[in-house]
Amino acid sequence: MPELPEVETTLRGISPHLLNQKIEAITVNQPQLRWLIPDSVIQLANVTVISLERRAKYLLIQMDNQQSLIIHLGMSGSLRFCHPSDERRKHDHVIFHLNDTQELRYHDPRRFGCFLMEPTTSVFEHPLLIKLGPEPLCSDFNPDYLIALAKKRHKSIKTLIMDQHVVVGVGNIYACEALFSAGIHPATICNKVPTKKLKALVSAIHEILTAAIAQGGTTLKDFVQSDHQPGYFAQQLCVYGRANQPCPTCDTEITVMTLGQRSTFYCSTCQK
DNA sequence: CGAACCTCCTGCGGGC
DNA sequence: TGCCCGCAGGAGGTTC
Asked: Which of A28, A56, A187, A217 could bridge across to A231 with cysteines, CB 3.0–4.6 Å?
């Protein structure tokens, strides 16, 4: 579920409530996520949040004890604010106790998310973060960069842009949408994509992610923002999840194929 | 090194 | 109605 826009939406939702807020304690109901939640997280108490940021799909929460919490939402994770008396739902695995009227709950049915702790000074050197590619919305991700990479790799353009070591934050939904926007068939081997189209692809990724963030992300099944509202970008998807429906541009039926073991949606007329 | 496949887990929708 | 199967937005690990 959460791709970059959903993680960014979560960050923007939780930041105002967590910044300078004290975390009194943490309750872990289910420690087995993608990896076991470490004791350093479980034992966290009486710390104050001093900054929050996002790197790729990771949330980084810096605290006043020189430690930073690294959270990944996996495929089905979400963070939302609740009143302590609100009924606890199945799969509410982690509870941040903030004060008498508010707590933050991490909910993740599939348990592919993770919670890690790292000294703040070395958080970006963490093995999970150090090899990540550039942020898609920063100037390091530009046509020259993608053209140089595409030239020396041999895989489909779709799996290239979904590789977090190439560019972060582009998941299956937005990869499909960006390739549609740029008019590129997703199975094209990346070194065969014309330079002009690679330039269009960089722009498309930038525009689609920006638009999705503005809409609060995409809610397909159960993604909700931290205030429990859904994201509204799903209404603007052109190809993703629209198998056999007409292409919004030319009315050709949208095709589905599998690439890198992921469902891939495209228009066989618009994308060559 | 790069590419392709496997894997973790639960929930849901479609088909019978 | 209910059961079973396949599939789902991520991405690290393994293997070749």
From this structure: A217
User: Between the CA of A160 and the C1' of C16, what is the distance in angstroms?
Assistant: 20
Per the annotation, the verdict on A2 as an active-site residue is yes
Residues contacting residue A203 through CB under 8 Å, at least 6 positions apart: A182
Q: CB–CB of A1/A222 below 8 Å?
A: yes
pLDDT of residue A224: 67
Dihedral, CA atoms, A183, A188, A190, A193, nearest 10 degrees? -50
Q: Which of A3, A6, A8, A103 is catalytic?
A: A3
Contacts of A183 (CB under 8 A, 6+ apart): A197, A200, A270, A271, A272
pLDDT tens per residue across span A70-84: 999 998 999 999 999
Q: Mind listing the domains of chain A with CATH numbers?
A: 4-125 (3.20.190.10), 143-266 (1.10.8.50)
3-state secondary structure of A86: coil
Give the tens place of pLDDT for each residue, A41-55.
999 999 999 999 999
CA angle A258, A259, A261 (to 5 degrees): 75
Q: What is the pLDDT of residue A216?
A: 82
Report which of A250, A155, A188 is spatially closest to residue A197, judged by C-alpha positions.
A188
The answer for residues whose C-beta is within 8 angstroms of residue A14's C-beta and 6 or more apart is A52, A59, A79, A81, A104, A226
What is the torsion angle, in degrees rounded to the nearest 10, for the CA atoms of residue A82, residue A85, residue A86 and residue A90?
A: 100
Q: Which nt is closest to the CA of A153, judged by C1'?
A: B2
What share of chain A has pLDDT > 70, as a percent? 97
Catalytic residue, candidates A55, A57, A80, A197: A57
A173 beta carbon < 7 A from strand C?
yes
